Structure formats: structure tokens, C-alpha cells
Amino acid sequence: MNLQILPFDPHRPRNTFDCGRRVITNWYKNKAKKCVERAEFCVAECLSDGSPRPIGYYALQVGNESMDALSTKPDDFTKNYTAFPAVHLAFLGVDRAHQRKGVGTALLSDVFERVYQISKLAGLYALTIQSLDAESTAFYRRLGFEPYSDHPTSPKLLMPIRTIRDLIETG
After folding, report:
1. 161 in Cβ contact with 119 (< 8 Å)
2. Of 12, 90, 116, 148, which alpha carbon lies 20 to 30 A from 44's?
3. What is the pTM of this model?
4. pLDDT at 72
């Protein structure tokens, strides 16, 4: 499967996209276009084998997170901070027909590369996500994300920028 990850294009057909999770599917179909127009999110779409229909997407936002949200406080430069700068992976979805075929991993690899590039331009502590359920939590944990909230089924997870830099720079 030949994958391309490209910037969001409002003219691509999204009406048949279904990742199996209503909130992720509906956001992409119904809100992504407006959110991109308003510059609230940066959205990238994954295309396969020349088809115009996206088979996956992700949405990023820049922000910060309260240090109080960390259940375990790091013993580093952030210990005196009230908040840490982060890029938030707000949405990541892969169409059901393409799940478990490496599309999600390819999308996350692209996320890591973009976050790495952002970290070269602005201060950044971590990439964060809010897990939806035990299955997505397990997926992100396998990739190296660590929980930083105590929610039993849908914790907030993060990957420090140092880890992402190491991944990118050591290949």
C-alpha cells in the first residue's frame, strides 16, 4: 500500500469515512473544514494508492497543560512551571477498511516529524493526547506514550519532546 500524508483539502470526499468511533468520524466529516479555515487545527489526511478518498487523518493543536494535571511531577526544568507547552493530538482516525494495516502508525510517524519541526522553532515539552478507551490507550502506550492523568479508561497521555527528538534524530 502506497501512503501519502497531505495537508487537509476541503474538496476531498470525506462522506464515506468511518473509523468506528462516532466522535472522531463526525468531527472529521462535519467540523474539520471549519476548524481548518479558522486555523484552530492543523489537519493532515492519508491517501492510498492514488485514491482521492482519505483513509485516515489527524488534527493537531498547540497549547499548554497545567502542571497540576501531571500525576507524577517530573524532576526536571519544569518543576517550577505552572503549565507546560505542548502540541495536542486532538484527533486521529483510520477508516475501518484500513485499520491494522499500518495507517495509524504512518500517521503518528508524520505527527512526530511535525512536532519535531515545531520544537525546532518554539519551546515545547511534550506531545499530548486524550485517550478514548482502553484499546486506544493500549495502542498509544505501545508507542511510548505515558499517562499523566489518573482516569482509569481514558487517561491523558504524553510523549516528551526529548523522546520524539531521539526517535527522529536516530532514525
Report:
1. yes
2. 148
3. 0.91
4. 63
The predicted-structure confidence for 94-137, as pLDDT tens digits, reads as follows 999 999 999 999 999 999 999 999 999 999 999 999 999 888 89
The pLDDT assigned to 153 comes to 80
> What CA–CA distance (Å, rounded) separates 72 from 148?
7
76: which residues sit within 8 A by CB, 6+ positions away?
A: none
What is the separation, in whole angstroms, between the first and last Cα of the chain? 22
What SS3 class is residue 115?
Answer: helix
Find, among 153, 170, 70, 86, the residue nearest to 123 by Cα. 86
Whether 103 and 56 have beta carbons less than 8 Å apart is answered as yes
10 and 36 Cβ atoms separated by less than 8 Å: yes
Q: How many residues does the structure list for the chain?
A: 171
> What pairs with residue 66 in β-bridges?
83
* Main-chain dihedrals φ then ψ at residue 91, nearest 5 degrees: -145, 140
Compute the distance between CA of residue 128 and CA of residue 77 in angstroms, rounded to an integer.
18
Are the C-beta atoms of residues 67 and 81 closer than 8 Å to each other? yes
- C-alpha R_g of the chain: 16
